Amino acid sequence: MTKEKAQARREHLQQMRAAQKRKERRAAFLMWGAGGLVIVLLIGVVGFYLVKRAQETSLDGVASVKYEAGQHVWSTVSYKETPPVGGEHNNYWQLCRVYDKPIHSEHAVHSLEHGAIWITYRPDLPKAQIDQLKDVAGSTGQQDYMLVSPFPNLPSPIVVSSWGHQLKLTDPGDPKLGAFIKKYQNGPDTPEPGATCGGPQAVETTADEAPLPPEPQQQTQAPHDSASPSASPAASQ
Question: Which of 102, 186, 195, 217 could bridge to 114 as Cys pair (CB 3.0-4.6 Å)?
Fold first, then answer.
């Protein structure tokens, strides 16, 4: 092999190696580019889901008001909100469970004072939606602090309330319902945390089954004394 041929062969090999390296660089670029695109798409999808979820569970629509706690009365109360979210209430609280008939607001508000969530719905709400509402109530939060009942003349098909907070809804499947329960059930604004929403002194009847209890003839202790029906377990120890 002459010197010229050897040189030509070396140059040809160098050109082949350079072409191969360029090919490998292009393949690597395409691979990393595709991988980066996938990562960007994944970040975009996750970000979109998180933003969408945040919007769906946003509680910006919650109306909040301030009420003084411990205002126990024996009479019927005229409330500002429908349903009420605080204020004067009966000495006896409503047993926390699902009711198929309206209950006395005066008992329900006392349950709110103890940390309960009260889910109310229009009596003419379709049965399928009522069942869905009960399913949500039965699978979210603390069941021993959950009230569900129909309520005539609601401003919205569904209204969920806690002490001092209320949210109007139209769909029992709205994620805001679960978000409200998790945030406000026995939340920081609960006037009497630790107080029971059950027990032997809780009212179990609906409004059509029994009137509000009359004021006792003799009452020797204040409503918040240890013998009071509204006293929390901790207060009676």
Answer: 195
DSSP lists the bridge partners of residue 167 as: 160
Indicate the pTM of the whole model: 0.73
- For residue 158, CA distances in Å to 50, 166, 169, 231 come to 26, 11, 5, 31
Instruction: Check residue 215 and report its DSSP letter.
Output: P
* Euclidean distance between CA atoms 125 and 128, whole angstroms: 8
- Tell how strand 146-150 and strand 117-121 pair up: parallel
Task: For the chain, list residues with pLDDT below 70.
Answer: 1, 33, 36-37, 40-41, 43-57, 218-237
97 by Cβ neighbours in 10 Å (0-12 / 13-18 / 19+) ranks as middle
Q: Biggest alpha carbon distance in the chain? A: 129
CA nearest to 164, candidates 64, 77, 34 = 64
H-state helical runs in the chain:
3-56, 105-113, 127-139, 175-184
Q: Which residue has the tokens 């395409």?
A: 30
190, burial (CB in 10 Å: exposed 0-12, middle 13-18, buried 19+): buried
Q: Beta strands 158-162 and 165-169: pairing type?
A: antiparallel
Taking the C-alpha atoms of residue 17 and residue 24, their distance in angstroms, rounded to an integer, is 10
